[in-house]
Amino acid sequence: MSKLIICIDYDGTFSAIPELLTDFVVAAKKAGHRVICATMRYEYEGKEVLESIGKLCEVIFTSRRAKLPFLKEQGIEPNIWIDDLPMFLFRDGQRGT
């Protein structure tokens, strides 16, 4: 099986079911997959994120930018997305909040 890049959202996704997704992240990494968390938060809003899912995988803060193009600019193209609001893969959020 080829190794995948799996991207998990934080707010409303990991934060909604942390026990289940913690087990998933651990299992996915054990199987050799790369797991990242992409959040639309600004980095200065990230303490809670870093203290939870950040202990399991890399966290990328997009600063309200659409996740898919932001990650692509970083050279990251996830194969699987787990996100409660998938429209924000393609659409920017409200900035400055």
Structure overview:
This protein is α/β, with parallel strands linked by helices. The protein has a single domain, classed as Rossmann fold, CATH 3.40.50. It is 31% helix and 18% strand. It is built from four helices and four strands; from the N terminus they run βααβαβαβ. It has helices spanning 10-14, 18-30, 47-51, 67-73; strands spanning 5-8, 34-39, 58-61, 80-82. Strands 3-2-1-4 form a four-stranded parallel β-sheet. Helix 3 links the parallel strand 2 (34-39) and strand 3 (58-61). The longest helix has 13 residues, at 18-30. The mean pLDDT is 96.
Write the layout of secondary structure elements.
Blueprint: E1 5-8, H1 10-14, H2 18-30, E2 34-39, H3 47-51, E3 58-61, H4 67-73, E4 80-82
Parallel strand pairs: 1-2, 1-4, 2-3
InterPro entries: HAD-like_sf
> What is the 3D shape?
globular
How many runs of DSSP E, i.e. beta strands? 4
CATH topology term? Rossmann fold
**What count of structural domains?**
1
Whole-number radius of gyration?
13 Å
InterPro entries: HAD-like_sf
Which key features would you list for this structure?
HAD-like_sf; single chain; 97 residues; 18% strand; Rossmann fold; four-stranded parallel β-sheet; alpha/beta
Describe the structure concisely:
InterPro entries: HAD-like_sf (IPR036412). This protein has 97 residues and is of the alpha/beta class.
